[in-house]
Design brief:
The structure is a single chain. By secondary structure, this protein is an alpha/beta fold. The protein has helices spanning about 20-35, 45-55, 70-85, 110-130, 155-175, 195-200, 215-225, 230-240, and strands at about 15, 35-40, 60-65, 85-90, 135-145, 180-185, 230. Helix 3 (about 70-85) packs parallel to helix 4 (about 110-130), helix 4 packs parallel to helix 5 and helix 7 (about 215-225) crosses helix 8 (about 230-240).
Length: about 240
């Protein structure tokens, strides 16, 4: 675990999972520019440390390597958040694709499907549960979902159904916890490593970079509209 200097307690603090690359790192960079303190995690320690070093030039940052499916890892994050006096935003960005290329459901290994659900559905809820005592009043929960959670794309039954479950879980959490802001957000197709894994061998250079989706997330975090499902790029267009 690495941390920077302690800053003022009233400074906004965000946890971002899966923050060593892609959308997670793009969000971390944007929030660091705005002075948020950051707790970041990822499975790859070396890439996470590189992200920490970059972000530490802008803000106070703690980097904790591990898997969000690991209860000990979540406890370590919760301890760090308590040490900092709470968290204003929890951004559940970490997820896994599953097999690449994606198999059809009738050929999908069920043990692997269970792993996808552990990462993409159970872990986000478990993270919020672990941080429950440290959520500051009116805290924001952002669960990163996908259009694959609402559209029946052939070959996307594993990942897509996991995101559909995350969307419904988010909607129920919003109904049960009206004092929180709960958002389930579709960032759109992005030029990321995961997206490339979903289309092995294809040229995905026409996809927009993760940074194109960040302004929409910032609208949610800083303007705090009603809880609900949002499409990040549509929000950004409205903000402009």
């Amino acid at each position: 675990m690495h941390t920077g200097n302690r800053l003022k307690n009233h400074q906004r603090t965000a946890l971002i999972t899966g923050a060593s690359r892609g959308l997670g790192l793009a969000l971390a960079r944007a929030l660091a520019e705005r002075g948020w303190r950051l707790v970041i995690d990822a499975r790859g320690a070396s890439a996470l440390e590189a992200a920490r070093e970059e972000l530490a030039a802008k803000t106070d940052v703690a980097a904790i390597a591990g898997s969000v499916t690991d209860s000990r890892h979540r406890s370590e994050i919760a301890e760090m958040v308590r040490e900092w006096g709470g968290v204003d935003a929890v951004i559940n960005n970490a997820s896994i694709l599953g097999p690449s290329p994606q198999p059809n459901l009738l050929e999908y290994p069920l043990e692997t499907l269970a792993e996808v659900y552990r990462s993409n559905v159970l872990a986000p809820l478990a993270m919020v549960q672990a941080l429950r005592a440290s959520l500051r009043p009116g805290a924001t929960i952002v669960n990163v979902t996908s259009d694959a959670g609402v559209e029946p794309y052939a070959g996307w039954g594993g990942y897509g159904s996991s995101k559909a479950a995350l969307e419904q879980l988010s909607a129920i959490l919003a109904a049960e916890e009206p004092d929180l802001r709960v958002y389930w957000v579709d960032p759109g197709d992005m030029r990321t490593q995961m997206h490339q894994e979903a289309f092995p061998g294809d040229d995905i250079s026409d996809r927009l970079p993760p940074e194109s989706s960040v302004p929409g997330f910032l609208v949610l975090l800083e303007e705090r509209p009603a809880s609900g499902r949002y499409i990040a790029r549509a929000l950004a267009e409205v903000a402009l």
